[in-house]
Design goal:
This protein is α+β, with helices and mostly antiparallel strands. The chain is built from 11 helices and 12 strands. The structure holds the ligand Nc1nc2c(c(=O)[nH]1)N[C@H]1C(S)=C(S)[C@@H](COP(=O)(O)O)O[C@H]1N2 and molybdenum atom (MO).
């Protein structure tokens, strides 16, 4: 008997088209821990997630869990070739072409708080402190396309606990690195964003078990275009919340401004929860195009509230009018 899929960490299955990924039992055996390996785009050590008790390294058959029909892993070429990373241009192919100009090593992250604490941490040190695991999540862009991506990384909650700020704060704010000389999109006249790119979460959202920091995908270190060396992944929110190439983290009690909200507040809210009932002013959010798709097979599927993760996150918003707080 096949159980209906209900887990947020979609179970990897033997149907993935990625041969390297199919062989991951092998790579797991041979993989060695180490952050320099990571920057050299070698396989990451991945630990099966014990999140909700599902071994993501079992095949669907072995584990008795099955993928939902539309939730097939998006091939690596689409995940790393069709991107939004405006720092490197506005076309979907620009990030893959230009993001490699970004210097990834060394990479430090400035930690600060309203209380005045500041510290700089090195990405390598952070990586050494964290246990890596895999999470397969749907990613739903506000532009109404979506993918299914196998991320490697650690829960954001683990990172926040490790940072252990003094006092308690209501929000956590993130900024992307901003190096104008390396980011051609930021020098463009058509660039609309007030750089650096900024995002933020309410603390209870940040501490939710689904909020994740990715340092890899498909078992390899993150491609630059996907937000190397570390980026946020918040699978129940529109993709623009999942900020890439994080250079600073700030703990605050005031709700921070976020980049898209600043550009068009009536179109993009602070919450940005995936919601088929609340349309974007210029287009419907009822359906999404699941990549890969083409003119002849558009692969159009209905969008689900909270991107299908309501079971895990709906409680966060029980007192909120989702139409008003979009
Ligand atoms: N710094 C930064 N982060 C960003 C963006 C961006 O332009 N700059 N685009 C966002 C948007 S709109 C989406 S849909 C996702 C896309 O992530 P992916 O390219 O890894 O699929 O990244 C998000 N994070
Ligand atoms: Mo997006």
């Amino acid at each position: 008997m096949t159980k209906q899929f209900t887990d947020p960490t979609l179970c990897s299955s033997d149907i993935t088209p990625e041969s390297s990924y199919l062989n991951r039992r092998q790579f797991m055996k041979s993989a060695v821990a180490g952050s320099s390996a990571l920057l050299a785009a070698q396989p990451l050590v991945s630990k099966a997630s014990d999140f909700v008790g599902v071994d993501t390294f079992m095949s669907a058959e072995e584990s008795g869990w099955a993928l939902q029909a539309p939730d097939v892993l998006t091939p690596f070429t689409d995940v790393s070739g069709y991107n939004n990373f405006y720092e490197f241009g506005m076309d979907k192919s620009d990030p893959a072409r230009y993001a490699s100009a970004m210097t990834l090593d060394p990479w430090s992250i400035r930690i600060s708080s309203d209380g005045g604490e500041t510290a700089d941490i090195q990405f390598e040190d952070l990586l050494r402190a964290m246990d890596l695991q895999e999470r397969i999540y749907r990613l739903r862009c506000v532009e109404a396309w979506s993918m299914v991506i196998p991320w490697n990384g650690f829960p954001l909650a683990e990172l926040l606990r490790w940072l252990n700020p003094e006092g308690s704060y209501r929000f956590v704010q993130f900024r992307t690195r901003y190096t104008r000389s390396e980011m051609r999109g930021t020098r463009s006249f058509s660039s609309v964003i007030d750089w650096p790119y900024q995002e933020a979460l309410r603390m209870d959202e940040a501490m939710n078990a689904l909020s994740f920091i990715a340092v890899g995908l498909y078992g390899k270190s993150l491609p630059a275009q996907n937000g190397a060396p570390l980026r946020l992944v918040v699978p129940w929110k529109y993709g623009f919340k999942s900020i890439k190439s994080i250079a600073s983290i700030h703990f605050t009690n005031r709700q921070p401004q976020t980049s898209w909200q600043s550009i068009a507040p009536h179109e993009y809210g602070f919450y940005a929860n995936v919601n088929p009932e609340v349309d974007h002013p210029r287009w419907s959010q009822r359906y999404e195009r699941r990549l890969p798709s083409s003119l002849f097979s558009p692969n159009r599927i209905p969008t689900r509230i909270f991107n299908g993760y309501g079971e895990y996150v709906a409680d966060l918003y029980k007192d909120l009018d989702l139409r008003q707080y979009y």
